[in-house]
Amino acid sequence: MLLQNRAVFTLGLRMCSTHVTKGPLIDTARPSSDMSEFRKAFAQAKHIAIITGAGVSAESGVPTFRGENEKWRKWQSQDLATPEAFSRYPSRVWEFYHYRRELVLNKKPSAAHLAIAECEARLKKQGRSVVVITQCIDDLHRQAGSKHVLKIHGNLMETRCVSCGEVTVNRRSPICTALKGKGAPGPDVADAEISVDKLPRCDERDCHGLLRPNVVFFGETLDSHILTNVEKEMEICDLCLVVGTSSIVYPAAMFGPRVASRGVPVAEFNTNTTPKTEYFTYHFQGPCGTTLPAALAQHESEVF
Ligand SMILES: [Zn+2]
């Protein structure tokens, strides 16, 4: 089992989306939804890894553009967040990301973001650690106050130059003059067809290369430095939470099952069961803004 998980992990460093890929069961028992049992494991944990996905941000009102009902114009994110789409239609892809940036700039952290950040700060004083490993490209974990965040799919508020590779934090609104007022999501809105020299460009001296959002597109490899850190956290954590993710985007979908294969308790918090639910010790169904604050609240055994 361990070997199989490792094989999937090793082969799956390229971001891809899949549907149900059921593996063999670790345990035929269904995951428990006994919160008092989870709280015992929580009270004993020293290194907690929290893997978060779009569900956490959805509760802040950030759309994912993943479902049939969540399209930007005619497309889902899988159609636009690809190297091919960016190289063929840079204006359209930039309009899409401009829209997402502007949307996120106006959002506030959800109850789930806040519960995670509060838990990290509290446990730090007790010599215990919390790391967030997130697939979200928004900034809401940081805004909530989380300090230790590994953003495996990149950051909407950073750009990367396609010529010189320079990565820059960029929270400008709009990111460039030509995109001002563009990016409306309606199905009948025509592409702005902005010429490539008017799209965001690199500020580095003598470069002026085209910038792209510093996010991982589908089909691209995840940052190896971040993945090395994720590997380390997966090895040392003694409790893992998988929060608000449908567990169908790889390689992140394998992180929870990998930890579970070491015999470490893994708890899933999601509105639905997922293809990976059967691997986990606990499953708490419902909006994570409702389920998570109680799960991460101060335990009676905590001493300061
Ligand atoms: Zn450059």
TrEMBL record:
Transport listed as a keyword: no
Keyword entries, A-Z: Cytoplasm, Metal-binding, Mitochondrion, NAD, Nucleus, Transferase, Transit peptide, Zinc
Gene Ontology MF term list: histone deacetylase activity, NAD-dependent; NAD+ binding; protein-glutaryllysine deglutarylase activity; protein-malonyllysine demalonylase activity; protein-succinyllysine desuccinylase activity; zinc ion binding
Residue sites binding NAD(+) per the record: 53-72, 244-246, 270-272, 288
Localization, UniProt: Mitochondrion; Cytoplasm, Cytosol; Nucleus
Pfam families: SIR2
Residues of the active site: H153
Binding site for Zn(2+): C161, C164, C202, C207
Binding site for substrate: Y97, R100
Coiled coil: none
Sequence ranges assigned to domain Deacetylase sirtuin-type in this UniProt record: 28-302
UniProt xrefs under CDD domains: SIRT5_Af1_CobB
Cofactor: Zn(2+)
InterPro entries per the UniProt record, alphabetical: DHS-like_NAD/FAD-binding_dom, NAD-dep_sirtuin_deacylases, Sirtuin, Sirtuin_cat_small_dom_sf, Sirtuin_class_III, Ssirtuin_cat_dom
GO cellular component: cytosol; mitochondrion; nucleus
Superkingdom of the source species: Eukaryota
Cofactor note: Binds 1 zinc ion per subunit.
Reactions accelerated catalytically: N(6)-malonyl-L-lysyl-[protein] + NAD(+) + H2O = 2''-O-malonyl-ADP-D-ribose + nicotinamide + L-lysyl-[protein]; N(6)-glutaryl-L-lysyl-[protein] + NAD(+) + H2O = 2''-O-glutaryl-ADP-D-ribose + nicotinamide + L-lysyl-[protein]; N(6)-succinyl-L-lysyl-[protein] + NAD(+) + H2O = 2''-O-succinyl-ADP-D-ribose + nicotinamide + L-lysyl-[protein]
UniProt EC number: 2.3.1.-
Domain-related comment: In contrast to class I sirtuins, class III sirtuins have only weak deacetylase activity. Difference in substrate specificity is probably due to a larger hydrophobic pocket with 2 residues (Tyr-97 and Arg-100) that bind to malonylated and succinylated substrates and define the specificity.
Similarity field: Belongs to the sirtuin family. Class III subfamily.
Cited HAMAP family: Sirtuin_ClassIII
Protein purpose: NAD-dependent lysine demalonylase, desuccinylase and deglutarylase that specifically removes malonyl, succinyl and glutaryl groups on target proteins. Has weak NAD-dependent protein deacetylase activity; however this activity may not be physiologically relevant in vivo.
Name this protein carries in UniProt: NAD-dependent protein deacylase sirtuin-5, mitochondrial
Organism: Amphiprion percula
Classification of source organism: Eukaryota, Metazoa, Chordata, Craniata, Vertebrata
